Amino acid sequence: MSDTFPKVAIITEPSSGIGRSTSVALSKVGWRVALFSRREEELKSAAEECPNPTLIITGDVTSETDVKRLFEKTIKTFRQLDLLFNLPFYLLRILEIDTLTLEHWDSFISIPIEELPLESFQAVLNVNVVGCTMTKLAKYVVDGAMQADGVVCPEPIMDIEHMVDTVVHITGLPSTVQVLEIDMMATKLPFVGRR
Fold first, then answer.
1. Which of 132, 152, 183, 192 is the most interior residue, by most CB within 10 Å?
2. Would you say residue 146 lies in a domain?
3. In this structure, how many other beta carbons lie within 10 angstroms of the beta carbon of residue 195?
4. pLDDT for 12-56, tens place per residue?
């Protein structure tokens, strides 16, 4: 991360849950944030909770044109980019493993950035939340999630604040420290993956 302030972050899917909580938390510690999602009303609502300058950009994270516009508008508005926080939660609608294709998985873990000005930002932080945090999207996990052996059973969850506090801590580290990836999961969740 850069040691200068204010820093600028792009956060995808910040309308609710992890994205919203992270947007608000980063803004509260001095970050300027660009919020990117398809739902404009939810973006406006999230932006109202951010005390520092906030940019709202509507678009689809799977669209190369929309993502390119996101980067261009963010850099034009804030003149820099320090962090990409990518949360494409649209994949969570696919709950049955039988319907998950390689194309779905690829779109979940990647954002089309091949032609973007990557030299203009300081870091991309990959946060893997294995299992679930207590958000609206967690209901299916609390009620029961399909396991590798075909059994549906409840899974442990963790408080969203633990994940958000971790991101805020990491983004506050000096430029002499680099964190590329974090894997977080609730206690008692089978180590990496379902039971």
1. 132
2. no
3. 11
4. 888 888 889 999 999 999 999 999 998 899 999 999 999 999 999
